[in-house]
């Protein structure tokens, strides 16, 4: 694993990250859209009239997307001032349906206890040092029967990799990913990818699948659904899910 850089918050990379989100969402056949489709399928029936919380919302794309299903309101929270500014800047066309608060996902101090019907979080739990505190905070703010759907980079396949690379390439087609290389699944903790990309900048907190699932149960949440979305691109993404989507209920 590589050395830990000092500047590690999204504030320093807000432009880079905002552009990355747009590029990922523009790829209609990519894993971000495959992941978003799971949120839609699991939640659209529950969203009309719902109070929604988007935990670690970043520049807010998921909350904006979910407004089409008729929630009462969507609150996004994040610790990045720069990303929250971008989220607020994009909220105007939604006429007060969206609001953004600076709040740590590990406490959610701005959110009242038992006030949320639907909590969501997209690809953020790996960015937060104490996942168990996030689950406890979400459990506190959910109403009884409330649902939490979150996506994460898949613990099993997006495990720490290093300068040797994340993929084995096809010897006959050097641009084509043939397989993942999983070298350090059992080593939990913060790691940094050695190459370009967001994970070389901000790192990620790796936890095994059992750690994540046990922490949800310990927070008093009930597991109701798991999804491992794959893409339809006919390459490695069609066989190995990059993300895991977990649904739990209070
Ligand atoms: C990979 S981004 C995902 C953002 C957004 N959910 C999306 O889909 O684009 C991770 C986000 O987690 C936020 N974050 C990191 N630590 C946090 C914390 N303790 N509390 C709230 N947000 C946090 C970052 O600022 C960043 O916006």
General description of the model:
Mean pLDDT is 92; it is low at 1-7. By secondary structure, the chain is of the alpha/beta class. It contains seven helices and eleven strands. The longest helix is centred in the first third of the chain and has 13 residues, at 14-26. The termini are far apart. β2, α4 and β3 form a beta-alpha-beta unit. It is globular and about 55 Å long. It has one domain (10-156, 206-249): Rossmann fold (3-Layer(aba) Sandwich), CATH 3.40.50.150. It has helices at 14-26, 31-43, 61-66, 81-91, 131-141, 198-201, 209-218, and strands at residues 51-55, 73-78, 98-102, 116-122, 142-153, 167-170, 173-180, 189-191, 204-206, 222-227, 243-249. S-adenosylmethionine binds at residues 10, 21, 56-58, 61-62, 78-80, 83, 104-106, 122-124, 127-128.
Summarize the structure.
This protein is an alpha/beta fold and 250 residues long. It is built from 7 helices and 11 strands. The strands form 3 sheets. The chain has a 7-stranded mixed β-sheet with strand order 3-2-1-4-5-11-10, sandwiched between helices. It has a two-stranded antiparallel ribbon with strand order 6-7.
């Amino acid at each position: 694993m590589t050395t830990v850089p000092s500047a590690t918050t999204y504030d320093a990379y807000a432009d880079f990250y905002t552009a990355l989100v747009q590029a990922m969402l523009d790829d209609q056949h990519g894993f971000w859209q495959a992941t978003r489709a799971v949120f839609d399928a699991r939640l659209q029936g529950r969203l009309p009239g719902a109070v929604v919380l988007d935990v670690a919302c970043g520049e807010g794309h998921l909350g904006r997307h979910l407004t089409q299903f008729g929630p009462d309101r969507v609150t996004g929270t994040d610790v990045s001032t720069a990303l929250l500014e971008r989220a607020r800047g994009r909220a105007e066309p939604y006429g007060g349906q969206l609001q953004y608060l600076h709040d740590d996902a590990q406490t959610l101090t701005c959110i009242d206890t038992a006030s949320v019907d639907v909590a969501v979080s997209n690809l953020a739990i790996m960015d937060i040092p104490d996942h168990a505190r996030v689950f406890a905070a979400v459990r506190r703010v959910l109403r009884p029967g409330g649902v939490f759907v979150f996506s994460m980079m898949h613990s099993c396949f997006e495990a720490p990799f290093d300068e040797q690379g994340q993929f084995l390439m096809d010897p006959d087609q050097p641009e084509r990913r043939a397989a993942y290389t999983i070298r350090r699944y059992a080593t939990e903790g913060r790691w940094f990818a050695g190459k370009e990309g967001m994970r070389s900048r901000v790192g990620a907190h790796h936890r095994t699948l059992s750690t994540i699932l046990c922490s949800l149960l310990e927070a008093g949440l009930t597991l109701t659904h798991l999804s491992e979305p794959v893409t339809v691109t006919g390459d490695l993404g069609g066989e190995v899910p990059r993300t895991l989507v977990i649904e739990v209920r209070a």
